[in-house]
Amino acid sequence: MADEVTLLDFWPSPFGMRCRIALAEKGIKHEYKEENLRDKSPLLLQMNPVHKKIPVLIHNGKPICESLNIVQYLDETWKVSPLLPTDPYQRAQAKFWADYVDKKVYELGSKVWKTKGEEQETAKKDFIECLKVMEGELGDKTYFGGETFGYVDVSLIPWYCWFYAFETCGNFSVEASCPKLVAWAKRCMEKESVSKSLAEPQKIYEFVLLLQKMFRIA
């Protein structure tokens, strides 16, 4: 029986972009279903009744939720182009850094566009410090895992297309503070799996402006 794979997603979601990259890296044929998060589909509510969030991967009728969980599932189910290291220590380290991205990059980046004044200045400082930690972990390596594109790269690279929105809202430059990290991001963008999975930075910025109006931030 052929594998039936469906991704329930929302185009600006960096979490969804992770899944899109992993699917592309492994060459997995799948159906993409765009969700309206203001009017969630019965399928999404059925497949993720706990959090009611995207992304959800449906493999032969069975749902897998949470982006890092989905990427790991794809990696373990389709062995081609492995993303996670086989060495237990390196694997644990990769999961640690992916978790750091989830806990820090997402939260601190969001604060930059959700705040103004002194609060925003603090958010910018915290966001850059967080990226500098990631840059320190990258060091002089081509990718976070070494010479090959892998799990931590997949976890972090979707935020690259959000940088323009953060920078424009906060009036700062990521590249000025973290040149090695931006150079890494540009290397990742040379991969078709990444460039075709990430949204246009300008479109993300326009989406953020809409969110600011909704939350009455602007």
Keywords summarizing the entry:
alpha+beta, four-stranded mixed sheet, 2 domains, Glutaredoxin, 4 strands, Glutathione S-transferase Yfyf (Class Pi), Chain A, domain 2, 218 residues
Total beta strand runs: 4
> Mind telling me which CATH architecture of the largest domain this is?
Up-down Bundle
Radius of gyration equals: 17 Å
What proportion strand?
5-15%
Q: How far is it from the N-terminal to the C-terminal residue, by CA?
A: 52 Å
Output the CATH topology of the largest domain. Answer: Glutathione S-transferase Yfyf (Class Pi), Chain A, domain 2
Question: Could you state the order of secondary-structure elements as H and E?
Answer: EHEHEEHHHHHHHHH
- Provide the low-confidence segments as ranges: none
> Please, what is the average pLDDT?
96
Q: Give the number of domains.
A: 2
Q: What is the overall shape?
A: globular
Helical proportion, percent range: 55-70%
As an assembly, this protein is single chain
DSSP helical segment count: 11
By CATH reckoning, the class of the largest domain would read Mainly Alpha
Spatial ordering of strands, largest sheet: 2-1-3-4
Largest sheet: 4 strands, mixed
Structural class: alpha+beta
